[in-house]
Amino acid sequence: MSDLLKPRDGKDVEAAVQWALAESKALEVVGGGSKRAVGRPSQTDLTLDLSGLSGVTLYEPDELVLSARAGTPLAEIEAMIAARGQELAFEPMDYGPVLGGLAGAATIGGVLATNLAGPRRIKAGAARDHFLGVTAVSGRGETFKSGGRVVKNVTGYDLCKVLAGSWGTLAAMTDVTVKILPRAETEETLLILGLEAIQAGAAMTAAMGSSGDVSGAAHLPSAAAARLPLAALAKDGRSITALRLEGFSPSVAHRRRLLEQMAKGFGPLAVLAEADSRALWRAIRDVIPFAAEPERVLWRISTVAARGGQVGSAMTAALDADLIYDWAGGLIWLAAAPSDDAGAPFIREALAGVGGHATLVRAPAAVRAAIGTFEPQEQSLGALTKRVKESFDPKGVLNPGRMYAGI
């Protein structure tokens, strides 16, 4: 048998998992493969490629709901709903460029399995908050369904929430249903120039607490700002603190004036109109400033937003790292020189005092295997994670060891 299994439908997926069980084989579950390099190196015998399960099966724009096979390209879905003035409000990032792959390879199943969300998460929530229903095949070789086509249609366990963020270790999703929302008529971004990280944190906190209804708040120190597609904004070496406003034109203009009054005490201001604003936030979403340096390790760090500047400043000094702050300081992307431990001991110790977790997104396979990729779990949580894995996949057929060794 080939080392690649490419099912055509849900029945084929069920048959593939049942065969793997019978033959004591382990399967690597992939869609478009854009996030394949995240996690511990594969410990599998064959690849279960779900990209053949493609196509939108239900789209009801008036009901704000869409169903698709799990291998459907995300770009295809986004183009379809954009034509009707709608979007996936959680703004999923594209890992392809920053991991050295192609842009546009992500699938809707992969986005939900990894619980991806971009800059708008501070307003719209994570992918799991828009995940309404799923059909999947467990590691027992059994097909199951959960959820439905509306938000309030959950009975018993909400398995969509369990599968979101499980990285294919619990089940192979075959069909998914998501909530979609109207796309804003326009957007603008207010820029504050030249702030240090802690000052930027204060500015973003003030903006988030205002009546401006900010849908994106990010800070790019000068090194990262200079690598933006809009590098002219940082031609004098200044950092950029960006505050996004979305909605109807009169509302955006009114709220921008309110933010300008609030922000003028922090530093010089500038405004990006719609086209440049969208380009900026795509670059922030996909961490484009760090995509051209694949040799550097890349961390995705989640922490308390109000402490983000403090945490990031300490890491910059200790690791000689470049940073991008998103989610008003609650998400930090850290790029640093390669090393045997990727800076993990310092990063995890720094987070222990303030709260948060760190994921090693980009590093050589040997480093990912040695130090792990995801945040280490305390004993009780680790035991719970193991019990959940065993309930879905007792024989360890699906992506074994991808998140944690032995699970």
Overall helicity: 25-40%
CATH topology grouping of the largest domain: Uridine Diphospho-n-acetylenolpyruvylglucosamine Reductase, domain 3
Which structural category do the helix and sheet elements fall into? Answer: alpha+beta
Strand arrangement across the biggest beta sheet: 4-5-9-7-8
Mean pLDDT across the residues is 94
Q: How many individual helices?
A: 13
End-to-end CA span? 26 Å
What's the gyration radius in Å? 21 Å
Largest sheet: 5 strands, antiparallel
**CATH class category name of the largest domain:** Alpha Beta
Strand content: 15-25%
Give an overview of the whole structure.
The chain has helices at 10-23, 74-82, 108-113, 121-124, 159-163, 197-208, 222-225, 249-263, 274-285, 308-319, 344-352, 365-371, 379-392, and strands at residues 4-5, 27-30, 46-49, 56-60, 65-69, 86-87, 131-138, 143-147, 171-179, 181-182, 186-193, 216-220, 240-247, 269-272, 297-303, 322-326, 331-336, 356-362. By secondary structure, it is an alpha+beta fold. The protein folds into three domains: 1-183 and 377-407, Uridine Diphospho-n-acetylenolpyruvylglucosamine Reductase, domain 3; 186-285, ACT domain (Alpha-Beta Plaits), CATH 3.30.70; 293-371, Alpha-Beta Plaits, CATH 3.30.70. A hairpin with a 4-residue loop joins strand 16 (322-326) and strand 17 (331-336). The radius of gyration is 21 Å and the shape is globular. 48% of the residues are buried.
